[in-house]
Amino acid sequence: MFNNIRRRLVIVNAAVFLLVLAVLSSMLYVHMRYRLFHETDEILQQAERRIGTYRNVEELLRSDHPEPQQDERTTYLFWNVQGQLVGQSPKGSFSGTAEGQFRYRTDASAIRTVTADNRSYRVLQFPNPHQGSDAIATIAIVRSLGDVNNTLRSLLWDIIAGIAASVAISVVAGFFLAERALIPIRRSWERQQRFVADASHELRTPTAVIHAQTELLLRHPANTIEQESPNIAAILKESRRMGKLVDDLLTLARSDSNEQLIQPSAIALDSLLSEVTNHFRSLAHTKDIEIATDIRKPLSLWGDESRIRQLLVIVLDNALKYTPAGGRIEVTGRYQAGSVYIGVSDSGCGIAEEELPHIFERFYRGDKVRSRAQGGTGLGLSIAQWIVDAHGGTIRVHSKVNQGTKVELLFPQKHRAPAEGGNPASV
Ligand code: ATP
Ligand code: MG
Structural domain of residue 133, as residue ranges? Predict the structure, then answer.
């Protein structure tokens, strides 16, 4: 798939490059052609002006080189009143059909391009400025475009060779650059593929459990709900797990697509921290875990309340999940060096040093068997990381195996603490 994309990228790049070069080269060629024709026309016009200054134009007929500046590229043709060619200078420059091509034409513009004997000429025709001369009625000055055409032809070949070389270089460089440009896309594609594979794998387990347990129920249709309660409880647990997994996947999918999910406002963080902590208290009580709090009041934060709540739940859920009975959890909230600080530390099992760099990866679970038994899918901290990033904050985890874990959250303090009892004030 990537090879195909790379090939297409290179073709499109080369085509655009070719188009740009072709347009620029055409402009250069047209400009050059105009300049060279213009120069030729000026030479013709200067010759015409000089002829106007001669007293006796008939003399031009007799001299082979009527003009001191005349070079071999310029020829003079003279016609009488009857329209017959009476002379040319240098003599014998044109004969027969070629001669006829330069005949004076009243309908033609003063300067025109004429092709005779497969050669191009620029022709300036004008009536004899010295009236009363019967011998010469009209004059044509003809200048060969051979040199101009040679210059233009060699310019054209240079341009074609230049374009061909540039396109060849652009194709080679394009392959190299496309390969480099595709590296992050390839990585993100692989990450996405792994994400989908992991998600499907995680969804398969609860689906299989629900399937099996429901079949068991159907095998004994006469049993009462009470008799089947363990099976029903298993179905309920797995469907809850599946629901949470789908919610988490949706959050991450939305965060990936950069959908605007953060609606910030001033949050009374002290109340939010106490509220979330209290929700966990009863659960902690059943596990014989003590939850202590040290929350500065008032404490305010600029953020999305539901997302910050979700973040606190993820961190506290981990602390509770990975702390054995008799342990202790401490929740701290305060201002610290211009930031809002939230700390959640536990006396739980801790995280091994080699696992620490991976805990924010999607579907990463420290001890897979243990955390699956705890209902974990390994998405919690990935979501936590996204929420913290979206609020411009940082998340740090310090941990020692069998001693405990400390999660530190720091957010920019966009809102200062309100005066006692007042509302948070913007700074
Ligand atoms: P989920 O939160 O999605 O239900 P989870 O808890 O396994 O599943 P994360 O919250 O992302 O996933 O945590 C990743 C891993 O980090 C966990 O599996 C666990 O091994 C380790 N971990 C996280 N917090 C703690 C903690 N407080 N104590 C010990 N280990 C932790
Ligand atoms: Mg978790």
Answer: 56-144
